[in-house]
Amino acid sequence: MTALNVRVREANTQLRATRDAPLARDVALLIARIALAWIFIYHGANTLFNAFGGGGIHEQALYFSTVAHLHPATFFAVLGGIIEFFGGLAVGLGIFGRVAAALLVGDMVIAMITVTFKNGIVSSAAGSGYEINVALAGLAAVVAILGTGRFSLDVFLREMWDRRKQVDRQ
User: Fold this and answer.
1) Which residues in the chain belong to E strands, given as ranges?
2) I want to staple 87 with a disulfide (CB 3.0 to 4.6 A). Which of 55, 76, 100, 156 is the partner?
């Protein structure tokens, strides 16, 4: 057997070993969910509640009407704030995580279409480039596809429900 064949077999063995690691998958999903929640709750609270020194709905509506050209701007500011804040909260807690993550992907796609795509991937223009939008959309898509993992409120509530049904049957 040649050295190349040995290396290929070793690489194949290592890839198979990582493929069947549910704990690693769940920990990775938890980390992704925390990162998404941190960013989106911050921006949503900034928009909806003037939190963290943000301008609130009025400033966001002005930005949407002038830079993003979204009308009615106040509607889109409130909608974006709700999706970001409550979507981030849901993803972070792991409740309705797939739906919330899909909404966050949509939020980032709309941001790219209306503001950042014309600036290029990296830019110092108003709205900056779309690199952060791509990263956040990709991370949210992972959660939307794979789910929230076993370290989530969805799993906890499902297990409680199943235990309760078993007790009721007895």
Assistant:
1) none
2) 100
Return the SS3 of 68. helix
**Closest of 87, 52, 56, 54 to residue 74, by C-alpha:** 56
State pLDDT tens for residues 152-168: 999 999 999 988 888 88
Read off the tokens for 116. Answer: 């950042």
Which amino acid appears at position 6 of this protein?
V
Note the pTM of the prediction, 2 decimals. 0.83
Q: What's the DSSP call for residue 148? A: S
Per the omega criterion (within 30 degrees of 0), is the bond before 72 cis? Answer: yes
Q: What is the Cα Rg of the chain in Å?
A: 21
Q: What share of the chain is helix, strand, coil (3-state, %, to 5)?
A: 80, 0, 20
Cα separation of 2 and 114, whole Å?
55
